[in-house]
Each structure stands twice: as structure tokens, then as C-alpha cells.
Automatic annotation (TrEMBL), chains A, B, C, D:
Protein origin, superkingdom: Bacteria
Cofactor annotation comment: The Mn(2+) ion enhances activity.
Keywords: Hydrolase, Manganese, Metal-binding
Record-level Gene Ontology MF annotations: hippurate hydrolase activity; metal ion binding; N-acetyldiaminopimelate deacetylase activity
Pfam families listed in its UniProt record: M20_dimer (PF07687), Peptidase_M20 (PF01546)
Record's protein name: Hippurate hydrolase
EC number: 3.5.1.32
Cofactor(s) the protein requires to work: Mn(2+)
PANTHER family listed in its UniProt record: METALLOPEPTIDASE, PUTATIVE (AFU_ORTHOLOGUE AFUA_6G09600)-RELATED, PEPTIDASE M20 FAMILY MEMBER
SUPFAM superfamilies the UniProt entry points to: Bacterial exopeptidase dimerisation domain, Zn-dependent exopeptidases
Annotated GO biological process: diaminopimelate biosynthetic process
Peptidase M20 dimerisation domain sequence ranges: 185-281
Length: 404, 404, 404, 404
């Protein structure tokens, strides 16, 4: 290989950057693209990079990798552990770590581009590689789309992507249908009337209004959704009041909602809004609650036909048993925006980065949950081999399967 | 006296009757009225009795005693304890006891009528004695009014009444303003949609709707009423469902509400209705809840001027210190209907029936709550003397105070 | 065939019997077994029937059909609709209907026995046919086991059974793993202290205790169970109090819990008990709540290997596409007790009874939920053909697959 | 008078100071004490001032005035309105106003000292004047006691004080028994376990724990306290969480509790703690909640005998009808600490500062609540006359009543 993927990965790992600040990372990517003789564009969606390999007629396959790190202080003890720091949107100085494996995503995509470039005579069509920023904010894909990425480059016939996960290295996890949940973040302002803590009857107490709302919201999942379906209604934050003896005028709730698909989204959102408005009415609120949507992440839905085709290709390439069904994840991703906006299929799979022996021992001891660090953990530390090779090959095999 | 009041009281105590079944009691009353040479009418408001003493020009004073017993099994161990039984409105055979002292009320009123009759030359005006049934159902006064009691007899210039209470015998308790609370009994039907217990999402669960409503109703008293005001919102019964694995179609709540006056009634009723309707809406109910009023008892409000006048009269008649302020009772009475319908003042007082030494000992020992049986207790057992005398005299003094 | 299956089904349908009262049904079954020359035993588990076909060495296959009807008033309008009535355990006279298809279960098993008897030369081993009563009470299987059914007859190597369902006639639905949920029915007595509705402070209000408990129980499903797992916590009934102005001394809740497996059962039961006890403590209850288990239904878990084997056999016998994955049902069954107690595999499948054209039309119109009556509906009316044939053949094919 | 009370009041009103920052105010006070020839001590309890008039043998009477202003922006439009600013304990620059009338309290006490000094020959005994800081924080009285005020000066035989209130100027409001409520401020930390918003089952959700606790706390007042008694349980602030998709590890509640006396305090505190602990248990919390008391204000209980004596003295001095029963206030005061610590009687009364004609008009129009600004309002603006005179005279009459 032209690119030294081990060195590349270690360099990226040492130098993680927060969302929409991935400028050094973009520089590393473009340096390697340059070395591969590929043209590219920087600054797509603020800090994204796009490159295109045009190779005759045939389908257009998009390969996507996300590039940002997280405000986590690395505790892996690795020789190449991050000591980087950054400034978050609130202006706070924070440690930064590639705790979600996006450094491996970038490494694998660059490796795959080299392989595809080296085998141009074996396939025809167009490969678009999308290095997307700010996945951790759920904002990067939409930023690239707003910046015209779907119009300025060949539109995809399929969008492919992959995510590192705590499965044994070598293993690939993918399922048809919903692979990751949809999610909305809502802010709810409940408007009461403030007053002295000793005179509740002169107020409309927003603390009680908020408490009753939180309790009632539990019934969406417990009573209103088919018990066999996945749905989550989390109130992640609740804030009202300054001191004990003043009843405040309002309360603020922040909700995170999760669902398997768009129908469930519409359904759950309607139920949440119904409850919020009714609980304000139960308090005799004089003003309607204010509900705003802070972000919307679509479900990550794998096209069944394309997933079946790809699974078969992985089995052929890597041997039977390589591909497992990892189940649906209740976490969310923004990769889907590319496929949804373009109206084309998506396949998004997971690949393992854990030492297989360590994994097998943990399974035998029943200590997987304790001993195998997951994404976002300060101990998240994929082994380099065969993780890098499998990531490169999975992307290459997948791209080739959908090119001519 | 013509009437043997001790024997009369013991006879009544031995033979209590349930509400609207006071026929033997009416027979006893009319036998004594006959003996006093007074004309009377039976069957007023089903089982009530009314007699009138006309004695020249002057004010019309109504004296009211209620006549019914309670479905309580007497455990006083008295020689003249009740062993009576009756059939309640549900058709159940139940024990019956004068556990609220209405036997003493009747005895005192008959004694007072004899005294007033014997002293006709000392006063002028009209005395109407009302032996009212079914106070325990909160229905007897309204039944008599519906039967025309206010039109068929001289309309009152004032309504007077008294109730036995566990104060020391000899003591009278009365206060101006609200003496006993107003009360409403409501039935609330919460309408959901039934279904199988394993499929809550196909239902609108009325059990959860009812539970949320009960919890929210707590906030009327805890947050919406001035902490210095008396208000009670009790859900005395809740019923829904037949078995564990069927979600029923509706739930029924029965509420008892208490307030000091009519303004508070309107206010609390509006708050309760607001919450019930909003909680149904929070459940997504397809039908509005059905709220019905089962009974309404007005506040027992003592006219301040008349109460002051009467308190002074009691002090003169019985000595300073006889009259105490017993505080407001959260229990309710239907005597007020007579005064409210007629638009005239009411004074309703309490008089004690407990052995004074026993009471003093209990106070000293701090065991009043434990040792002194209250109204409706199976151990409620007033001493005969001076309870009877004080009851007779209090009514006589009071009537004379407001007659010419 | 010796047996006229159409006439048999219609006769059973006309004469449904309530659980543990299936004596006429047992008579019909034994008459047909007699006609087939099979020996049998009646009264196993009160009203069950067992017969055995011994046919040389080989595996022992149990075939189970349940026999009871439901207290539902038939509204199908069929010529052979039930007009039967019965007396339920509470002593109430109720209508009775085969609204769950157990008449078809019995018909198919008798037909299968005739086929197996007629083809004895083609297989060897032992068939035990179990006509189980009282499935609707979740009590019949355990009654038969308590009566020694596993000891008095050849112990199974596998247990097989089938249930009629609103799929198109001809279709078979089965899945490996959990096919139907486990379930427990609990009664919870919450002990407070009663008193007058106007004096809540002298009581420990069990209505509020119950309401708070119901609201808190919602959080088991909404917060404590993996959103991807099935769990149901239904409070199907809540009862406390006699009238609005008396605060009762206790409240009774009846809960129906559902889970996919035994681990989830233990987990959910522990969480429910934790909440019930803590909410009683929050009320300051002086006595612990009393929690009793009314019934326990295990999960209906299909052995994966046996299910795969059987699915292949159905495909061969009936053509590809006959077998569909119907998903897990949140309803429950007691058939598993036989396999669990014996420690052997179970396969339990569903077969369709709906006119295929009607079903296709409803699917096209999006009106399946409205137009296709489900089990327990008063309109549940399977078509006779090919429902009977497919039921007979499915049992026969299945039995033969596991016999030698 | 030596002191120009109008000018003094206006000067104080123009220059309010926040709690424990009353240094300019202390300077004004000591300047006037100096002018009266009285010795004094500054810095008692940080910013308090104490002076003593020793005048032969006889009772020791303490007269107390509080001195601090509030962080309120004055909107009275008065020529002498405050434009002062201060820095609050959080370091924030805030407007400051004498919105509670403490400027009038100081003025009246200085005027009374002059009068008492001028009439030394008419009385004997000792007057101790206490200018207390930081009443608004509920901390000044305890700070002075901690600084030895009860030991370094003649111990009181009685403690007297007065508060300006929106009654008509000239009127005095006082009642025997509880005049102002007791109060505690509590902080409750509810400890759960944090995690990702999409994985509630891996957490112990403190937001739900807090909401359930708030709802349950409502039942203390609604169910557990005699409806005729005053009690308030306010949750004035609730805080948990940073963003919608992270379930936080803990929640914080701040409670303000109010009661009429110490028995009720102990009772309500025990109930609140019981509920907080049980709701944490209902959530399966692994750590006990942490409950801390931020401040404790005793009930302001007027000694009945002393209050009767004082009421009679006021009637004699100012004419019948001057003294009204203002009812109990649910607000709280720290003046009681002096009397409680010393074990002597307290009388604390209110005096009016509203233009009587304006007040009468508002009563007639039913607009008192809207038109008469209350304490802590930015529009609170007592008229100078006869407010100052009545304040001076009330203190003087009261002191004389309890001196020899």
C-alpha cells in the first residue's frame, strides 16, 4: 500500500478534534488523497472532504466515513493515547478523544480508496468518498447536504458506511431493516405563574406541572406502544427555580425520543405533545407549553435487498460466520440523511475491533458488559489488526458489489 | 314533666331505625305530642313529623331534631344497648344503632316542647318543631322541603338546632360563621377503551387514567387552596376492571369534597372538573368523563348576630364558661337547607354528653382521642344526666331568646 | 375417513363448555376414539382425555389439543352458532362460545389420530394424544400434570400442538424461540387505615397509595426494561372503597405481567415487588402489602432445531410459502408445562382459518384490524375448508417428522 | 424630637443595603444614638447594632428592628426612590430597595428610643434596642445570638417587635398564638445512576425519581395534615441533567416547608423524609437521598397573656378599633430566635402604612389584591404620616406596658 495505515490511524488517534473543528483531520485526509492522485474538495459542510473516483459508466456508490472525536479524557494507557484538548460550543476547555472509532473509519476509507484506485480495471462506475464532520452533534450530514453535496457530486445509487463496534475483530454485524433508531431532541417549556413559596394558591406551580408531565410521559412507552416495538421517551433534563421559597414561573424539560421508523416517530411525537398540553391544562396554565425540536435523526434503515446482497458478498469474501445479526441499536446516526435525501438505498454495518481471545474469555466469564469497553468509553481501544484490514476490505468488497 | 324523658331516651336508643325508615320513631314522637295536647302531621318528607305551637303574634322559631340511626353494631355494653337490625338500600340486613345521638336530639326537643307549652304565658310567637328523617343520607331536609314544609307551616324567622358531641356534659360549643363544612359527593366516570391485558397499545387504559387523576387531584388542596383555608378532596372509592388480564373500558371514582363556604365550593368544584377533564385528555380519551353530583350539603353557617345573642343567653342561663368555641368541624349537616331556602338566620350548636370527670381525666392523660368515643363509634354512649336536661334547657333558652 | 370431521366440528361448535366443565366434549371425543378402536382414559386433570397409539419402538410424540370454550355470546350469525349457556366460577349464568377455536383443535387432533392409525405401517414409535381442559384459565395443563399425566403415560420426547389464528386458511405461522409470552397474574392488597372522608389525616389513604403505585409501575416498562425487549405490566383491575365519604382501609390491584422468558420474569417480578413495597412505605403504611400469584404461564418457546426441522417438513408437504413468521405473540398459553416438566422440546404453531380472498381484500384495503375477527371475538368464525384439512395434515406431518 | 424622623426615613429609603452589608445603615443608626446620648455597640452579628437604656430596677424589655433591604428594583416613582445597587452573595450586581419596610422599622425604633429616653422618670427597668441585620436571609438573629447578644447584654423578660404591612395607616394587627409560620428550607439530593438517553434500562433515572417524589410530596398537605391546619410543602426548585440524550446521575430539589408550630414542624419533616426515602427506594436507588436543612425559622408565636395585655394597652392609647386580627401569615420571621433562646414571651405585631382613603376605596371596589402593593413589591410605598408616628407610639406604648 502507498498509505501506511497503521501510522495513519495512530496519528489520527493522537490528534482527535471536536465536531466542526476537524481541520487538522481534513488536512491529513487531503494529504493522503493527494498521495493517491485523487482530486478532492475541502470545507464541504464546514469541515468535510469529498473525493470522486470516476471510472467509466456504471453505478454511483457513496462511501461515507465520519471524522470527529468526543469530549472524553482518554484512559486507555496506550502509547499513542490522546492528550488533546479542545474548546466546546459553550466555550469550555475539554479533553478530546477518538472514543467512538471515527479515526478507524477514516483510516479504513482511505485504505479502501487506495484499493479501489489500484483495481480500476476490475470495475466500472463512480465512487464518491464522503468524509463527514460533526456526526456526534447529529449535524454534519445535514450541513454537507445544505452545502450542496448531493448536487455538486454524482448523486448516489447507493450509500454505504460502516461503524466500529465492540464485537470481536474480524466480525461484521448487519441486519436488514432498522439498524439504528430514529431520534428527536425536544425542549418543552412549561409556563406557570410564579410567587412566594408560602403562597402556592397565588401561583400556577410549574414544578408540579413538570413532575406530573414526567410521570405521564412514562405511559407513552408503558401503555401506548406495542410492547414488541422499540420506543424510548427520556426526559434527560429538568430545570426550574432558583431557591426553595420562590415558586418559579416556568419549568424546562429536555426530551430524547427514540423510534424504529418514521411512522413511529410521528405517532410518538403526537402522543408526547398530547400529554404535555393536557398536563399544562390540568395545572390550569394560562399559556400553552412551548415545544421546540432541537434535532431530528432519521432511523438508519438498511435496504433489505441490498443488505442480503452485501451479506452474501461478505460471506464469500470472509467466510461463513463472519456476518452476525447485532440486533437493532437504540442509538442513532446521521448517515441516513444522504440516502433519504437522494431517495436511494443505504447499507450501514458494524465491524468489530476487540481482541477475539479477550472477547471469548469475557463471554465465557459472563463479563462482557464489564470488561469490554463500548463506544464513548474512555477505555475504548480497538486492536489494530485485523481491525484495519477488515475495515478496508469490507468497504472495498461492498463498493465492488454495487459497482459494475 | 309529663314526659318521662329518661324512659323516652332509653326506648328510642333501644329501637334505632335507618334513614327514611323511622316509622316506629315517628310513632313514639306523635304519642308524646298527643300527650302534650299538640297537633302534628306525620309523613312529612316520607317519615318526618311536624308540630306547631301557635301563641299569639311574634316571631316564628323553628326547632329541628333529626331522628335516624346508623348501620353500626352497638358495642357499648349498656343495659339498653340496641340489638336492632334493618335492611339498607342495597337490600342488606345490617345492625342498627343510634351512634350519632339523634335519640338524644328527639328527647331534648320533646322536653323543650313541653317546657315551652308549660310557659306559654311567658312568651308570644310561634314555635315549629321539625322532626327530620334521613340526616345521615344528607337527604331528609330536602325531602321535607320538597314536601312543602316551608309553605305548609309558618315560615321561620330563625332556624335553631343542636347536636350531641363528645364534649363534657354541661358544655355547649358554638361559633359564629362556619360551624360545619359544606360538602359535595361526586361520581366521576372515566371512559377509556378496553382490551386484552397483553395489548395495552390497543386500549385507552382507564386504570392509569384514574390513577393519574387521583394523583393530580391532590394538588387542589396542596397547591391551589390558601393553606389557611379548609378544603378536602377525598377519593373515597375507585373501581375498575374484573380481572388482571383484561383492561377495562372505564373507571369510576367517588369523591367527597369539603369546604367552608359556597365560594370555596364553586372554586374547588371548578378545579376538580378542570383536572378530571385534562387527565382524560392526557390519556387521549375519546369520550369526555361523566361527572355527576350525588349530593350537596351546604355549609352550616351560624349567623354572627344571632350566635352572639344566643351565646350571651346561654352564659346568663348556664353560667360563664359553659359556651366554648369548638372550632369548625369538617363534617357536614343538612339542617342548613331549611334556613337557606327560607333566607333566614341559622344557629346550630353542639352540646356535650361525656362524663365530665372521665373527660378531665382523659385530657390530663392526653388520651382524649383514644378514650372518648366520637359520633358514629360503636362505643358512643352519652351519660343521661345532665345531658338530657342541658339539651332541653338549651333548646328552651334558645327558642325563648328569639321569641317575643 | 371414519370420522365425519365437518359434522364433528359443527357439533362441538354448537355445544361449547366452560373450563373444567368439558364433560359433553369429553364424551364426543371418547365416542370417536372408540370408533377408531383406541383406548383412552377420561377425567385426567378433572375433564381431560388421554389416548395412546403404541406402534413399536421409537420416539414418543405428544399431540395436544385444548377443549374449552369462553363466556362470550356468539354473534357470527352462523347456522350452527352456539346458543349455549353455562355457570361461571362466580355462579353467574353466562353465554358460552367456542370463540378461540378449541373446537377446531379437537377436530384436527381426532382427524390426525385417524390418519396416524391408518398409516401405522409407515411409522414406528408412540403417539400420546392429550385433550386438555381449561386452557382459558391457564390451569388445565397443570391439573393434568398434578394428576400424573407425565407418569401414567409414556413420557414425551417432544410435545407438539397447534392453535387456530386469523391468518389465511392454508397458512402456517411458526417461529423458533419465544412464540408466546410468559405471564403471571398477581393480586396486590395495599393496606392502609380507613376513616371518615372529611378527616384524611386520621387515615392512611389506600386510594392514593394505589394510584401512586399504578403510576410508578409504569416505569418498569418505560425505564427499566431494555426498549428492545417485550414486557407488559398491566393493572387490569383496581378496587377500593364503598362510598365517597368513607376512606377505605385497603385497596386491591390485579396485575397481568408479560415477558419473553424466565429471566425476564424474575427480573420484572422483582421490580414490581420493589415498587409496591416502596409505595406502601411512601404512604406510611403500617402493614406490608400482600402480593399473591394467581397464576403463572411459562413462555411458549419453540425449540430452534425442532422448529427448523418441522418448518422444512411443512414446506415439503404444503409447498414453499406456506410457513410464515407470525412474530411473537404477547398472549400466553399453558401447553409449555408439559414440555418443561418433561424437559423435552416443544413446537407450537398457528394455522389460519380465514377465507384467503377475504384476507387479501382486507390487506389491500388496509382493514385487517377492523374486518378480520380475532380469537375471543364474538364474530370469530373460521371457514371449514381447507382449515380442517390443513389442521389434520399439519399435526400428522409434524408427528410423522418426529416419529421413526 | 431631636431626631428628624421624616428625613431619617427618607435617607434610609434612598440608601437600602443588602443583608449583612448594612454598614451605611449602621452608621446612620449610631449617629442618631450618639445624638440621643446613648452608648451602643456596632458589628454585633456582623452588621448589627445594640444599645441599652438602663433606668433602675425592673423588667428588661427588648425592642427589635431589622435593617436590611432587598434585591428589588424600585418602581414607586417617589422623589426619594432608591437607585441603589449591591452585589449579592452570588457576586451579581443587583438593584436594591427597602421593599419590605425595614427603613420604617429602624425609624420607628429610633423615635421610640428618643421618647423613652425623654420619659425616663415615668418608668423603670431596662430597654435593649436590637437593630438586627439580614432578616431577609433568615440569618441575622442567629448571627447576633452566636455573637453573644443574649449574654453580653441584659437578658430580656420579653421581646417586642413590629412589622410594616399593607393595612390602613393607623391600624395595628396582632393575634395571640401563631402570628407567622415556622419554616424550613431543605435541599434534597436524589442519587440515581446516569447513562445514555437511549438506554434507560442501564440507568436509575433521577428525573423520574424526582418527579415521583414531587407528586408524592403533595399528599403530605392533601392527606396527612388536618385540613383545618396550615401547612405548606413547596418544591421551589428542581434541577437535573445537562442535555436531552444523557440521563443524569442525580437530581436536586429545594423545598420550602411552612407550619404553625414546632409540633407540626417535626411532624411534617418526618413525613417529607419518609416520602423522599421511599421514592428513592421505589426507583431502586443504590444510595440514600441526602437531605440537608438550609435554614430553620421558628414560628412567630405571640404569648397569649402578653398579647392580651398589649392589645388592651393599644386600645387605651389609640382608641377601640385600632387593633384588628390580621390572621396568621404563612410567611416567616427570625425575630423569634431571641425569645426562644432566652425562654421568654414574644409579641410581634403589624402596623399599617397605606393611605386609609385609598384602602377604603380598594375595599369598596374589591380591588385590594390588585391595587394595594404588598411587601416585596417594587411598588411598596408606605405613606409617612401617620405611619411613622403610629410606629413610634406603638413601640413606646408596648415598652412602657412591660416596664415598671
Amino acid at each position: 500500500m502507498t498509505i501506511d495505515l497503521d501510522a495513519l490511524y495512530i496519528d489520527l488517534h493522537r490528534h482527535p478534534e471536536l465536531s466542526f473543528q476537524e481541520t487538522r483531520t481534513a488536512g491529513v485526509i487531503t494529504r493522503e488523497l493527494d498521495a493517491l492522485g485523487l482530486e478532492f474538495e475541502e470545507g464541504v459542510g464546514r469541515t468535510g472532504v469529498v473525493t470522486v473516483i470516476r471510472n467509466g459508466s456504471g453505478p454511483v456508490v457513496w462511501l461515507r466515513a465520519d471524522t470527529d472525536g468526543l469530549p472524553v479524557e482518554e484512559q486507555t494507557g496506550l502509547a499513542y493515547a490522546s492528550t488533546a484538548r479542545g474548546v466546546d460550543p459553550a466555550g469550555t476547555d475539554v479533553p478530546v478523544m477518538h472514543a467512538c472509532g471515527h479515526d478507524m473509519h477514516v483510516t479504513a476509507l482511505l485504505g479502501a480508496l487506495e484499493k479501489l484506485q489500484a483495481t480500476r480495471e476490475e470495475w466500472s462506475g463512480t465512487v464518491v468518498a464522503v468524509f463527514q464532520p460533526a456526526e456526534e452533534y447529529g449535524a454534519g450530514a445535514q450541513a454537507m447536504i445544505a452545502d450542496g453535496v448531493l448536487d455538486r457530486y454524482p448523486r448516489p445509487d447507493i450509500v454505504l458506511g460502516q461503524h466500529l463496534t465492540p464485537l470481536p475483530a474480524g466480525t461484521i454485524g448487519v441486519r436488514p431493516g432498522t439498524q439504528m433508531a430514529a431520534s428527536d431532541g425536544l425542549t418543552v417549556r412549561l409556563l406557570g405563574r410564579g410567587g412566594h413559596g408560602s403562597r402556592p394558591h397565588s401561583t400556577i406551580d410549574p414544578v408540579v406541572m413538570a413532575a406530573a408531565t414526567v410521570m405521564r410521559l412514562q405511559t407513552v412507552v408503558s401503555r401506548e406502544i406495542d410492547p414488541r416495538e422499540m420506543a424510548v421517551v427520556t426526559v434527560g433534563s429538568i430545570h426550574a427555580g432558583l431557591k426553595n421559597n420562590i415558586i418559579p414561573a416556568e419549568a424546562k424539560l429536555e426530551l430524547s425520543l427514540r423510534y424504529p421508523d418514521d411512522d413511529a416517530r410521528a405517532d410518538v411525537l403526537a402522543r408526547v405533545e398530547r400529554i404535555v398540553r393536557a398536563e399544562a391544562a390540568a395545572s390550569g396554565a394560562e399559556e400553552e407549553p412551548v415545544i421546540t425540536t432541537d434535532h431530528t435523526l432519521p432511523p438508519t434503515i438498511n435496504d433489505p435487498a441490498a443488505t442480503a446482497k452485501l451479506t452474501a458478498a461478505f460471506d464469500r469474501a470472509f467466510g461463513d460466520g463472519t456476518v452476525v445479526d447485532p440486533g437493532m441499536f437504540t442509538g442513532s446516526e446521521d448517515v441516513s440523511w444522504f440516502a433519504r435525501e437522494a431517495g436511494v438505498p443505504l447499507v450501514y454495518w458494524f465491524w468489530g475491533g476487540v481482541d477475539p481471545q479477550q472477547y471469548a474469555d469475557a463471554v465465557a466469564a459472563g463479563t462482557v458488559a464489564r470488561d469490554i469497553p463500548t463506544n464513548h468509553s474512555p477505555f475504548f481501544a480497538p486492536i489494530l489488526h485485523p481491525t484495519i484490514e477488515r475495515g478496508v476490505d469490507a468497504l472495498t468488497v461492498a463498493a465492488r458489489e454495487f459497482l459494475a
